[in-house]
Amino acid sequence: MAARVIRAVLAAAGLLATFSAVAFDLEGHRGTRGLAPENTLSAFSRALAIGVTTLETDLAVTRDDVLVISHDPLLNPDIVRGPDGKWLAAKDTPIRTLTLAELGRYDVGRIEPSSRYAAQFPQQQAVDGERFPTLAQLFALVRDSGKPVRLNLETKIDPTRPDDTVDAATFARLAVTAIRNAGFTERVTLQSFDWRTLVEAQKIAPALRTACLSIETENNDTIKPVGDAPSPWTAGLDVRKYDGSVPKLAHAAGCAIWSPFWRNATPARIAEAHALKLEVLPWTVNDPADMARLIDAGVDGIISDYPDRVRDVMRTKGMPLP
Length: 322
Hints:
Elements: H1 2-12, E1 25-29, H2 41-50, E2 54-61, E3 67-69, H3 100-103, H4 116-120, H5 135-145, E4 150-155, H6 168-181, E5 188-192, H7 195-204, E6 209-214, H8 246-252, E7 257-260, H9 267-275, E8 279-280, H10 288-297, E9 301-304, H11 307-316
Parallel strand pairs: 1-2, 1-9, 2-4, 4-5, 5-6, 6-7, 7-8
Antiparallel strand pairs: 2-3
């Protein structure tokens, strides 16, 4: 909160560039998905070279309870090739059913070229031979870099598909244990759309920062109640009991950060979140015009597939760069 106020005062006085502390959180989404294969060591290394303050990524759990980096709980045919070098035919294999050794046979170094996904990221440079990294490997990469970057780790768990992953309490326990053992508690934010994992993590690690992810669109809404019941994503909290306010809901869940889909981050909601002492960190913002608008609206950071573009916008605005 103090950094945000200082930034606003300096901006008003035309002195923002003189503020040496980097108060704005520049996060590389899945490393830097727009430029390198998502959630790979190559993507994280690229983001570190660009100069992010935080690496954003996703967690899955193998059959032998190893935390690995993957956005999808199931092997995704858009980015996964089997041991035979061929693209997978279907999205039907949960990572939870594979040991770490078995998972290591799959290549995630490029996007399947005929997929719609490939058309979204024409600048992504393939790195054949990339494997699913472990969380331990990511910790080591960050430690070896010598850079004071943070990690924003998402528990990829869907309350409507309980068979795809470990349960929420187990996921939270495994994540907290790994973070503590690596000595990264002060450098990690744990985020999730399934707020149950965040509530569980807060019980066993009150010092760990948590971020409540949300999306509210016509086809995907993790906040909307289901009949008389609250959303299955919000840990039993019902937005109707909080004046329909998602910032108030995230605050009630104990989160330090509200991380909405970027289109849901309106100036009024950003102001409301700040009044509750919540930071606001929208995802996934890839257009420079949207980046500039959200910065002007007072967000505390941006998650982007193109952190290089965010840096360019920050530079244009005279903001201190990481």
